[in-house]
Amino acid sequence: MKKFDPHALRREFPIFNRKIFGKPLTYLDSAASAQKPRILLESLKSFFENHYANIHRGVYLLSFEATEMYEAARNKVAQYLGTQNPKEIVFVRGATEGINLVATCFGKTFVHEGDEILISHLEHHSNIVPWQMMVEERGAHLKVIPINQNGDLDLEAYQKLLTKKTRMVAVTHVSNALGTVNPIRTLSDLAHKRGAKILVDGAQALAHAPTNVCELDCDFYVFSGHKLYGPNGIGAVYGKKELWEKLPPYQGGGDMIESVTFEKTTYAHVPQKFEAGTPNIAGAIGLGAVIDFLKTLDWESIKIHEKNMVDLILKGLAEFPQVKLIGMPTQRMGVVSFVIDAIHPHDIGTILDREGIAIRAGHHCAQPLMDFFKIPATVRASVGIYTTPEDIQTFIVGIKKVLEVFKL
Question: Sign of torsion, CA 219 225 226 227?
Fold first, then answer.
């Protein structure tokens, strides 16, 4: 395992050689999408130059090689998530498609008129809209777990919302807008006591710490590769094998079938049953390469470092009375959101961009959460494994310049 050094690690990401408006890149938007290490770029180049072919169906060497690389990537994802069964991993385009897959297929099988689905007030739209669509179709009801002003879930209210009608609890592991870390094992245990299943949106969590789905005892766990320093257009869903086997296919087409006649089609076994058509082969292989890279890192040191970077942001922003933090969760990971009442977040983002600083400004696909805090948008700074103290210092100097521009 390599000793963690953020400055040395940063050199593994070629984009940091780039200048933005003549200034070094200060990238504080990893929560939206993380930058890519050299090992990913090299793995994609090697695959397309030396091994490219379609998978599973070819009888020639290139196809065998591509298939082996694709399925090896599935094994790597399974191991990274802490499951010993790679057949519990279904490749998808990302967390959004993963949640849509589960909502659609689980709804068809287990949700009936009058049943209930629980989500939380912290959710990204990707973990709201698919459930809204499903409950409308099934005649079920969507209920929302409330939060407090700090941005923490109200666990007492959660327990009261769980009833014998609850079929699924769908919650984020880490809030993309506030950085709130939810107590997933506690949520899982309470859901299971009521006979409900639980899906965890892990898109924001995996980039900050490896996760063990068996220890969490969740029924489904979804994530996107692009937030895990991997390619875009690839992600995965972990699901317990006994649940996958009860669900119908999500889409029809090639590779998800066992046999097809005009009278009847029989389906392949899990996971191929849920992977219709030619998948993102290169994306999966690239994701596997990134997981190999991440497994060499000292994650205990990284967690401490990232917390220190978040604390530096909080300390720096505290120097400016004009800055109002949004959410102060009990446990925070990777994200700080704030507003300056007299300045629109987009204006802040634009000024910082001219200083080479990339941050996110907007509602972060969490409009109900913005409504809770009675604001239209926030400025969000988010850290990654390559974030350095110098990045934070540059950001704080940038905020000072914003205030000077607006004479505040």
Answer: positive
Residue ranges with strand state E in 261-322: 265-267
368 prior amide bond cis, ω within 30: no
Give the three-state DSSP class for 66.
helix
Same domain, 173 and 280: yes
Whole-angstrom Cα distance, residue 80 to residue 94?
17
* Tally of CB atoms within 10 A around 356: 18
**Which tokens go with 38?**
């050299």
Q: Is the pTM of the predicted complex or chain greater than 0.85?
A: yes
**How far is the C-alpha of 92 from the C-alpha of 314, rounded, in Å?**
36
For position 284, which CATH number holds? 3.40.640.10
Query: Helices 281-294 and 61-81: crossing angle, nearest 10°?
Result: 50
341 and 211 in one domain? no
Angle at 99 between CA 252 and CA 362, to 5 degrees: 130
Asked if residue 26 is part of any domain, the answer here is: yes
Q: Which of 105, 214, 218, 365 is catalytic?
A: 365
Angle between helix 38-46 and 281-294 (nearest 10): 140
Question: Do 319 and 236 fall into the same domain?
Answer: no
| pLDDT for residue 119 is more than 70 | yes
Whether residue 323 contacts residue 107, with contact meaning beta carbons closer than 8 Å, is answered with no
105 catalytically annotated? no
The string of pLDDT tens digits covering residues 357-388 is: 999 999 999 999 999 999 999 999 999 999 99
Range of the domain at 288: 42-294
**HSE-up (13 A, CA, CB side) for residue 367:** 4
- pLDDT, tens only, 268-294: 999 999 999 999 999 999 999 999 999
Per-position b or e across 93-124, b if 16+ CB within 10 A of its CB: bbbbbbbbbbbbbbbeebbeeebbbbbbbbbb
Q: Do residues 395 and 362 both lie within one domain?
A: yes
Cβ 28 vs Cβ 387: under 8 Å: yes
Phi/psi of residue 29, each to 5°?
-135, 35
DSSP H helices, 52-201, are 61-81, 95-110, 129-138, 155-161, 184-193
**38 in Cβ contact with 13 (< 8 Å):** yes
